[in-house]
Amino acid sequence: MWGPPCGRVNQIGVTGVDLPGMIGQLFCRIWLRGYATSIHRERVWDLPWSAADPGRHAFEWDEDEAARLTALVVPMVPSEADWAADPGRMAGFRFMDEVTVLLVSRYGRWVCGWDFSVHFGGPVEAWCCDSHSVGEPTETAECVVTCLLEWRDWLEDIAERFEQLAPLPDMDAEDRSWHLERAVTRLVTAVVNSTHAEGGWHGLCETTLTWFLTSTGLGRDEAQKAVEAAIGGRFKSYVAPAPTLVDTVGEDLAIRLTGRGFYRER
Ligand SMILES: [Zn+2]
């Protein structure tokens, strides 16, 4: 059942509806289409690993840049007058989209997850939502900076895991299967830990697994289909998966991609 602590979600009328197998991200996609904006904003689940991979997108950061970015964001924060002139309460969303455009132009497409909050199944702890996180200008701008760094750290962490978990190119199908199964177990566990299995956490899980497979050379469509089929709707919003389920999903994915079973005793 949907029951996030964040008030904004309650306002749009999905509370109390059980949406098994559906993801918070899907819900966000539908919801966000509901307000008119001329800003095209890329979302995490649309981002290919080539655009998200921190190894391919350097990020120069120091105190000066933190101060410059904060100074750029402060005047973008909606004022009392902006909120008063906005009965639909969309000023917060507009701000978030405009900040995203600024961050993308400054650092690259990978930044688009800066506000992917834990409440919506993301890994960013410092952001809640438009209603709770957009307020006093300096505080809000500093929070944006914190979130950006949190998102970058998360990408760097999973990139490191991808490297450690990747099957070697010369491995036979059985070894490859074993590595893939192990990778799924580790990566799902990492996503559950980052998101606390809040919101539609399994959306980020699908994205992460798809990114991992593409990082090993699989095509994006093929990777996405294999991940979706292996999960098979068995990961649920707001529910941490049982270890046995994680193992089963890993096994299914490994068999699907290699045609071989894995060997748990190894
Ligand atoms: Zn909130």
What does this structure look like?
The protein is mostly helical. It has two domains: 12-38 and 166-266, no CATH class; 42-155, no CATH class. The chain contains twelve helices and no strands. The chain has helices at 7-11, 24-33, 49-52, 63-73, 80-84, 91-107, 130-133, 137-165, 173-195, 201-215, 220-231, 243-258. Helix 9 packs antiparallel against helix 10. It is elongated and about 60 Å long. The two termini are 39 Å apart. The model is unreliable at 7-34 (pLDDT under 50). Bound molecules: zinc ion. Residues 6, 8, 128-129, 131-132 line the site of zinc ion.
Uncertain segments are: 7-34
Task: Note the gap between the termini.
Answer: 39 Å
Give the fraction of residues assigned to helices. Answer: 55-70%
Helical run tally: 12
If you compute it from the alpha carbons, what radius of gyration comes out, rounded to the nearest whole angstrom? 19 Å
DSSP E strands, number: 0
**Which H/E pattern describes the elements?**
HHHHHHHHHHHH
Small ligands present = zinc ion
Largest sheet: none
Q: Approximately what portion of the residues adopt beta-strand conformation?
A: under 5%
Mean pLDDT: 87
Q: Helix/strand/pairing class, anyone? A: mainly alpha
Shape: elongated
What's the domain count?
2
